[in-house]
Every structure is written in C-alpha cells, then in structure tokens.
Amino acid sequence: MGAYILRRLFLIVPTLLGIMIINFLIIQAVPGGPVEQILAELQGVAQDTTARISGGGSEVSGGGSAAPTGDSKYRGAEGLDPAFVKDLEKRFGFDKPLHERFMLMIGSYLRFDFGDSFFRDQSVIDLVAQKMPVSISLGLWTTLFTYLISIPLGIAKAVRDGSRFDVYSSGLVIIGNAIPSFLFALLLIILFAGGRYWDVFPLRGLTSSDFETLSTWGQIKDYLWHITLPVAAMTIGGFAGLTMLTKNSFLDQIHQQYVITARAKGLTEQRVLYGHVFRNSMLIVIAGFPSAFVSILFSSALLIEIIFSLDGLGLLGWDAIQKRDYPVIFGTLYFFTLLGLLMNLIGDMMYHVIDPRIDFEKREA
Q1: What pLDDT does residue 313 have?
Q2: Cross-strand bridge partners of residue 193
C-alpha cells in the first residue's frame, strides 16, 4: 500500500500543474482583466475627475503628461497618460511575459504564498480563512443529511425492489436528480421565505444582525434557523445519486452466494442484511465520502451561496471572477485542486481500511 500511495502522490504533481496551466491560459485569454477593470472604473467617473487624471493633476497619474493613447492594447485607455497605464500593468504584474508570470506564480504557490487580492486589502489566505467556515458548515450539514437519507432509502428500495414503494420513490429520486439544487432553492424561497406564501425562514445570511447579543442557545437556534433552507436545497438536489448507488450495491450483494448460505443456516433476515450484506455493500458508499464532501463543498454550494447571500467560498469565487481578481482565482484554484486530489487518494485508502482484502498494489501488478 505504501508504494501505491507514493505513486499517487507523485502523480498529483503533473496533474496539478496541468490543471493550473490550462486554467491560467483560459483566464488570461478572457477579456476584461484587472487593468481593464480599473480603466472601466475611470471611464465611469465624472468628466471633471477624468480631466484631472488626464491633465496630470491627479495623484494616480503621478504628474505625467496628457498624451492620448489611441494605440493602446487596452480598451478605455484613450486620453490617459501612457505612464499611468504602464504603472497599472506593473502593479498587476502584466509587465512580464506570460510564461514568466506563470512560473513566478507557481513558485510562490509551492511555498503556499498566495499573495494579496487585487481589489481587497487582504491576503488570499486571510480571505479563504474568513469564508471557509460558511462553506464547511454547508458542506458538512449537507453531506450528513444526504447520507442519513440516501443510505436508509437505498437499502429500503433494494429490499423492496420492484414494489410500489420502490417505483414511487424512484420517481422522487429521478425528479431530485433532474432538477438542479438552485431551482429547489428558489422554490423554497417562494414557499417558505416570504416569496408568496409563508414567511418562516430568513432569506439571506447565516446569522441575524443581533447574533452577538444572543445567548448560546439563542445563537444555536438562530444559526439553525438560517441554514435550514440552504441545506435543504442542497440535500434535495444531491441525495438521488447516492440513493441509487446504495440500492444497486445492496442488490448486487443480496444475490451473492454467501447471502444464500447465511439464509440457509437459519439466520434472520435482519441479521443477514445488516450483519453480512451491509458491510460489503457500504464499501463503495463509505469510501466515497471524502470525494462527495469535496464535491458538495466546492461545486454544489456556489449558486446556493449566491442565492442566499451566504458569504462563503462560492460567493468569494464568484466575486473574484467578476472582478478578474487573479490572485484569489488562481490561489483558491490551486489550494482546492490540491485538496481534491488528496481527498481522492484518501478515498482510495478508505477502501483498504474498510476491507483489507482490497490491495491496489496487487491489482496494478
């Protein structure tokens, strides 16, 4: 197992590098970078402010001359001092060639130095640390409820395979799988957050404005009150796949020879199902927990955080993409891609922990 883990760890390096290169090239090719963002803001200010900037009276221009730059590669740079545009390029690191910028970025990331946000007066690590609790909270609750619903439901469907319960519940599972979680979120808002019917739950935020003044029990109730709809939307949209995985895994094990033998020995159905079948059928479900948590945490929560105005990693990433805040985009991409690759490795290791008979080294040989 040790040799397999080492090979997987070495494989992480080229995988991570390839993901970073592809995303770096794509994002660099997208128009509207940070320099264009600043120039667009300057275009939107009043004419007298623009006149002071182009006339050399602004502190930003550094006293340069007002030479029009009609041949500038940036839209919106017309009428601005070329020295000011070059200062912007230097500030954002665009005075260096593309490959040099990438190598400098990767070198910093290897030291876990993710730099500072272009548009927020904070480091990327501080921003992630501030937003992480919200996303982890959503991810943990959603994963917990998804497993608590999917595993019993999948077992019940397997035991009653072909019955009315199986057919009707399959209809609900198909609906849950077909409709994205953000549409469930909108439906829940309409029904329970004052949209048209009942105003039971809050529409936005993870806590109330007076959260700090509440008692400990009051803070717990306030937190649970706010998180109910987001977690419900994510759980409804995510339990379908795990339910069918559990059912199919159970069905596969129920027809194995050892189950027939156990029943022939006179064991009760409950003993057969939960003493023998459960362990073998849950192997793939439990081992996939790390990957499922990462998937819920960093992909499913994006639109939910935006819809419910939850200040987590999803909302941070969305804002960074809109503003072309490259340090936040690439820093979080590097960190969470690395985390996802490590979680996949942990998922493989879980197979061996749950069932020591599984040996990846022998399988590869």
Answers
A1: 81
A2: 199
